Amino acid sequence: xxxxxxxxxxxxxxxxxxxxxPRRTLADAIREDCGQTGTHIGCEHGVCGACTxxxxxxxxxxxxxxxxxxxxxxxxxxxxxxxGDKLHPMQQAFMDNHGLQCGFCTxxxxxxxxxVLEREPDISDxxxxxxxxxxxxxxxxxxxxxxxxxxAAREMRKA
Amino acid sequence: MSAHTKGSGGDGLKWxxxxxxxxxxxxLVQGRGRFTADLPAAHWVRFVRSPNAAxxxxxxxxxxxxxxxxxxxxxxxxxxxxxxHKFNYKPVGQPILAEGxxxxxxxxxxxxxxxxxxxxxxxxxxVEIDIEDAPALVDxxxxxxxxxxxLHAGVPGNVIVKGEFKTPGFDDxxxxxxxxxxxxxxxxxQNATPxxxxxxxxxxxxxxxxxxLHCTTQMPHLVRTAIADCLGIPESDLRVIAPDxxxxxxxxxxxCPEYVLIAWLARHLQSSVAWTEDRRENLIASFHSxxxxxxxxxxxxxxxKLLALRANVLxxxxxxxxxxxxxxxxxxxxxxxxxxxYDVQQYECLARAVVTNTCTMGAYRGxxxxxxxxxxxxxxxxxxxxxxxxxxxxRRKNLITQFPYKSAIGLEYDEASYRxxxxxxxxxxxxxxxRARQQLARDKGEYLGIGFATFSERTGYGSPAFAARxxxxxxxxxxxxISVDPSGFVEARIGSSPHGQGLRTTLAQIIxxxxxxxxxxxxxxxxxTDTAPYxxxxxxxxxLVISGGATLIAARKVRAKLLKIAGHMLEAAETDxxxxxxxAKVAGTDREVTVAAMAREAYTQTHRFKGEIEPxxxxxxxxxxxxxFSNACHVAxxxxxxxxxHVKVERYLVAExxxxxxxxxxxxxxxxxxxxQGIGNALLEEIIYDESGAILTANLADFMPPxxxxxxxxxxxxxxxxxxxxxxxxxxxxxxxxxxxxxxIVNAINDALTPFNVEIDTIPATPQRIRALLRNATNSAxxxxxxxxxxxx
Lengths: 159, 793
Prior knowledge:
Chain A has helices spanning 26-33, 89-96, 106-119, 125-132, 143-158; strands spanning 5-11, 14-20, 52-55, 58-61, 74-76. By secondary structure, chain A is of the alpha+beta class. Chain A folds into two domains: 5-77, Beta-grasp domain (Ubiquitin-like (UB roll)); 89-158, DNA polymerase, domain 1 (Orthogonal Bundle), CATH 1.10.150.
């Protein structure tokens, strides 16, 4: 119903030339225009964090950003975490520590935790729980998410 | 005869009892899960929902160029009308789109169809619904008051289920009791809030005329049966697929009218049609839960032994009745299971479901039991106070210790460990040390409290239990087909429909144990009505017990057949053959044959069997158990800020017994998640309507599921009383985590409130409610900074 704008989104190192309305959220553009459905939408009002992606090294809620605002920025989603067949330490830690059940919130938690640990590899336990309370999970009670992220932090510091 | 063991596994089992990694996870951690909303569609739907709680629809005006479907367009589609054949049930039908009048804010009145979601939303914003506003009935008690408006024709007084029970000796025991203790409990309305809200996608196949409906559901087969009934089509013309489902917690076990409409539209348009619910719709128009008033009275003898219980349960089940269970689910479960883990042989109960102008209630993890356990455990703490004895001692006097136990209403309890789990929890939490800390804190004007909850959890019940409710659709059994294909790989097709519970992993462990192949090579397939056997889905802590039992039965048959084939191929007696490491081996020799070779033989060399072994390698198992009782004791330690009413859960401990544990890691995860939801239920989660029936909690800032901040580390202690009522010896544990926290936490809050002589019997126990109590506390007991008012200790 509104005029569309041509933009290029760079997701996991690949350029996607798309045409979107100015009001289109980054979350919708990633999922529908770029076909990367690993990023999930849970609330569309910035509370649940299921749609968290990393934009220029910071975790952001992609439902609260317009696609046009992300042009020229480096976007990373869950699909880009693994290096070929080798899982990212965060993905491996979530599997090893039962950090997921239904898996719907998982991509958002993975991107949140990776984004924060890349910036603050030595984050304190207390600050980590502060960060992880940004996102909602209804299955795990957070116990094993916290355990997973701590385990991944140890691995990431080794690397 | 007691068989309590700490820890899991043992028994020389190779796969059962081990914390193997989940087979579900690799796809999910890489963003390769496939959820309903991931599918592209040619048409998108936006529902236009009623802004009014009650009133006649005078007109619906569509904007130019919009495709708007209303009730008149789907006149042939039947209403959703669940049936009970008992309890004075009054059937009410829910139209797929509101017909003539609306009954709650959020009821779907029209559906707008457009090429994109955005266009559908834009058009929907322009659809005008003219409603002649009528007074709304919001509260359950108001619905049964004299002169209340009648919501549905044929339901005078708004009561659609009325269960009544009384043991013959009740009155005599009641009048002879030493003390009668009363608890007026309020369990407010909540929403299960799975992270994935509802979604449906239907596609028409022009070659066959069939519809394939992907939807986020816990019971795909029942969705197919119900929608085929509503549309009047053969079930074979409808394929229902529950792909990856982002949590359910009961909210996805009832039929949504929206799904019926999406399937109808795909047939009507002969195209693909999708709908993805937004969070606001989920909070106002998906299924609610837990809205109950419970008055519970206990008659005790002079020794604080409970002699009789009298319960009055009023469940506000919303505007319609949920399918298939009906709105009888909450009140009738309350009636059946109210006495919980306590020995009491005299019981009277009146349990009613009433209709109001609110969203329909469905299931939420634990269904009635978080509410009834909360009430019963409050009653026990009040009784302990009245008798001036320790809350633990009153439980010691009353917990069931002899098994099997038949409850007053006739439920058979199999062996459990009510006393033992409580004593385990008591020892682990160290009550004397807490009491000393509590006193020190009070001296500084800080208020700590400890609360206990002991409960039984009926799990894994088959069709007899559901039949007792008189349901026209009686769920219960499960079927599993296990095939070894000609390449030697094992596939199990199941009727259950897991959505986070890890059933692909645990069922593979059960199969691996029987036929000696690694679980990582076994595929468990579910959720597609074209490939899965008819089954009831995943809910009510049933899947591991019932699908697990069916899996064991089928796996034993596969094992027997493999032994027969191996005997034939190895020319050995079956009794000398063991199945392990993907092979059949003749014990004490080097003779062996792989499962793959046996499977190939079973399909392609059957002439060698000379008619002694049937061709192929597929077996089936069906299981329909009577039900078993898991149990647990939960302990909460809370810190109450009397200035703000804020409650922090400092420590949470669970001692639980779910019989044999198949995968301890997964079992722990189920308890963790349950406890977190229970903490939300106890302190945070509340759907609030105003007097006009408008909903005030329509986003996740106002309806607050807990975050990592609100959940303390959860300490788990396991006991195992293998069930005699479950062939895997496992009991269900999906819901138990959620059942205990409202009781344990609110008991702990009341313990903290002791100096102020006020009690809270309402969940969620929000800061506002606690502050209101403290404000009204007597002057002498008012909280003041830096000192213990010392009213009582």
